[in-house]
Amino acid sequence: EGVFGKTDGQGQVGVTIDLNGPGDYTFPFQTASGGTAKYVYKVTVPAPGTADAALVATTGTIAGAVTDASTGAGVVGRWVVALGPTGTVAGAVTGPGGAYTLTGLGPSTYRVIAADPDGAYAARSWPDVAWPGSGGPVAVDAGATVTADLALVPG
């Protein structure tokens, strides 16, 4: 209880926990924002012993920026969605500088679309083609972050 670790640049974390002898132990993992991760790691410790609970990433991320095509300035408050083989998988609203992040994506290919709820810009699909259109898929691998920037044009 109360054991914290922070991931390094490769997504690895190391913590030492004093256990009450041999047995089975279950450790839920929690995200930095306070959410509980999707997996629980069970460790069986023999007497005496050490267990290595290495986690393997199961999801990836798409991140990027949505900008105004004519000025290059980031566009705040626009919708970005990832469409996977089964439909919409993740969505975000652009923040400062037009930045967005779509997390928790299973390994697959996705179409990334940016849309303007105010209608000032036309919807675009990565890599910068009008939506609906023939935008290319973004391939996501477990443990990886893929960049998909989009430049919006007035609608």
Describe the structure.
The chain starts with 22 loop residues before the first strand and ends with a strand. The model is unreliable at 33-40 (pLDDT under 50). 0% of the residues lie in helices and 44% in strands. Strands 4, 5, 7, 8, 9 and 10 form a six-stranded antiparallel β-sheet that branches. The protein has strands at 23-30, 36-45, 60-68, 79-84, 87-93, 99-105, 108-115, 124-125, 129-130, 138-140, 145-147, 150-152. It is mostly beta strands and 155 residues long.
Summarize, please.
The protein is mainly β. It contains no helices and twelve strands.
Major sheet size, sense and barrel closure: 6 strands, antiparallel
Briefly note the structural class of the backbone.
Answer: mainly beta
Span between N and C termini?
53 Å
Instruction: Please trace the helix and strand order, writing H or E for each element.
Output: EEEEEEEEEEEE
Q: What is the count of DSSP helices, taking H or I runs of 4+ residues?
A: 0
Number of strands: 12
Beta content: 35-45%
